[in-house]
Amino acid sequence: MIGTDGLAALVDVLRARGYTVVGPTVRDGAIVLAELESAAQLPYGWGVDLDAGQYRLRSRTDGAAFANAAGPQSWKTFLHPARVRQWTAERAGGELVIEADDTTPPRFAFLGVRSCDLRAIAVQDRVLTAGPHRDPVYGGRRSGAFLVAVECTEPGGTCFCVSMGTGPAAGPGYDLVLTELVDDEGHRFWIRGGSAEGAEILAELSGEPASEAVCRAATGAVAAAAERMGRTMPDTDLRRLMARTLEAPRWDDVASRCLTCGNCTMVCPTCFCTTTEDVTDLTGDHAERWRVWDVCFDLDFSYLPGGPVRASPRSRYRQWLTHKLGTWYDQFGSSGCVGCGRCVVWCPVAIDITEEAAALYDWTRRAEEEPR
Amino acid sequence: MTTVPLPYRVAAVSAETADCVSLEVAPVGQALPEFSPGRFAMVYAFGAGEVPISVSAIGDGHRLTHTVRAVGAVTGALCRLRAGDAVGLRGPYGVGWDLGAAAGSDVLVVAGGIGLAPLRPVVRHVLDHPGHYGRLNVLIGARTPQDLLYGEELERWRRASARVEVTVDRPGPGWRGSVGVVTTLLDRVDWRPDRTEALLCGPEVMIRHTAGALLDRGLPAQRVQVSLERNMRCGTGHCGHCQLGPLLLCRDGPVVGYDRTRPLLAVREL
């Protein structure tokens, strides 16, 4: 168990070990993820009010650092950058020399990875490194990353990790895990190691063994969080639901509201799609290949010479949702949704993934009840 | 590294039609791993970009041929290349034709337009291995007689025991062959649904109609292999563009059994 001074020491120890420490901090009216020079930059005393299409900071009287649900960014910002140069090509005397961009990425220590986001990192690990080809950009950043998870004790109004089986307790994959407690006994963090390096760093911190009361209080706070989810998914096999509702009228309904802006894909911690940009300089002999985040809501996403495969907004929203909740299983062996609720919060027209899934589920049940 | 192209040089260019060329390329230094029929490379035109193109011939000395139709900026740039020009290549990617499944069976190849390109190595392979396969029928549809690929080679296939039938959508003066969609050729050749493996490539509408006609005639869907096209940016299963429902076509395709793709192709805009 450590106090806030121990948390400050943790940041210092990680920085001393050469890590670029990234964690939540308040900026521009939101809790963003940014490089931290000290634990003082953590959002002590800030909470968030979340609803569909709405995000508001709110001050907390208890001074808690991690009692705030997901902000607009996720860790993919750092592991799977929105813009990355993959290689450069030089043309000289009829020869083509192509060189991989071998810029050494920073070694990140992520401080405050919530259980849903810890799962999201595991999902992207499977997508980007577990297939026949390993993405060198993600792989390089991921293999050096040190993860400090935080168990969730304060879910937001758009959270549904319990439905997705991803929280609020932290699953495997962390190097260290914290559970924050603020009560009459003070402001404390129950901290445990999850890896050899995590245990090593833990030993460098001057904490005291957690009493049974602390463990019980921490476990209780996480269990209580599970009862306070702002949203739930329909209690059904979502993969099967997606497969059997491809022609449901609900897709037209949601398409009439969806702006196809792609905000949901930008904030989603698992959305991984990218496109490429090829640029040349003015001499015409130097070219670069850049990879940038792409959005399945764009017409160009499914471009073929004969026209886009998914021309209608209906088909593009359907692609996003059925991929996230359904075909992700076929492609990568799990759901693509971790229940963080970001897509609900950051949708400018307040489309709610749980509400859409529920409407599809209702449609199947009505279809079953209809007399033949 | 699978995301960085290797330099190749254009060894020969053959103008196939008004808007199609075949580029034979050879490695400048290190060569890519061995290709097999139906698999594809990401072909890089300097400064313009990359496109996924199946191999239309697999030669000696790691030489590969890609037949390219100029339909956009990158394919346009590729079609303007001359012998000696440099290109970048990475691959091989994807799942190719399952020739093992065709062993001992008659082989029915049905191609529409540039769809003949990924099937040419199949025809060559079957003709090079007499005794491994039964009868070879090749049915080809083209827009016009001038859009027909590999005209001289088709004659060689005929001389080498393949039955080759051609039909066009719009005949020109002097055309004495068939007119109409490629499915009209199905009843003109001798093939038996109980001993045939069918391999299809062409526009998606042609694939659906042809596969449907084959199934109507009693061929099981799992004996129909189709090569499908979707946008692809990476070839390595990471960009998400080539999804067809549960499939990532760069990884699970481009050649997929029709038993898997039939329900997917039936959904509009999937």
Automatic annotation (TrEMBL), chain B:
UniProt key word Lipid metabolism: no
A Pfam family reported for this protein in Swiss-Prot or TrEMBL: NAD_binding_1
GO terms for biological process, alphabetical: pyrimidine nucleotide biosynthetic process
N-terminal signal peptide: none
Cofactor note: Binds 1 [2Fe-2S] cluster per subunit.
Residue ranges of domain FAD-binding FR-type in the record: 3-99
Any one GO molecular-function label of the UniProt entry: flavin adenine dinucleotide binding
Entry's transmembrane regions: none
Keywords: 2Fe-2S, Iron, Iron-sulfur, Metal-binding
Binding of [2Fe-2S] cluster, residues: C234, C239, C242, C250
Cofactor(s) demanded: [2Fe-2S] cluster
Protein name per the record: FAD/NAD(P)-binding protein
Organism whose genome encodes this protein: Streptomyces malaysiensis subsp. samsunensis
